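debug: dumping io for the single-chain case to check the tokenizer round-trip. Nothing else runs in this session.
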Amino acid sequence: MLLKKIKYAIGKKYRKLDKAISGSRCVGYMVHLSFPTSFQVSFIDENGLPRICEYTGTCFDQRLLVPENFKKMLIKVFVSNPMKLKEQTVKIAILQEDQVLKEKSFPICHTENFDGWFNLDLVQA
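debug: decoded output
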């Protein structure tokens, strides 16, 4: 009897999880910098809430499992170029199921110190 109740409870949890996963899709945010630096990334997470994180290096890659009705995808990148490196770029992409939905490259000014945000957003109908 106890074993039957345990099997029922596990089956019920599994069915809920399976239903939640089947109604979801994978969304990704990607950032690639042409030079190593510290940068901040702000994005909308799987709960629809804004998150901000700090990274060091040249790239950022975040994959999220979001509900099917998740419409607004937004990513912002704050970059600093204090060394005035020439011909540097910031490339930002929004992906869905490993397909690029939107992508944009931003050149960084090298004639003066640069600190600024780069934005990429996508609202699906």
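debug: round-trip ok. The beta strands are 24-44, 50-67, 72-81, 88-96, 99-108, 114-123.
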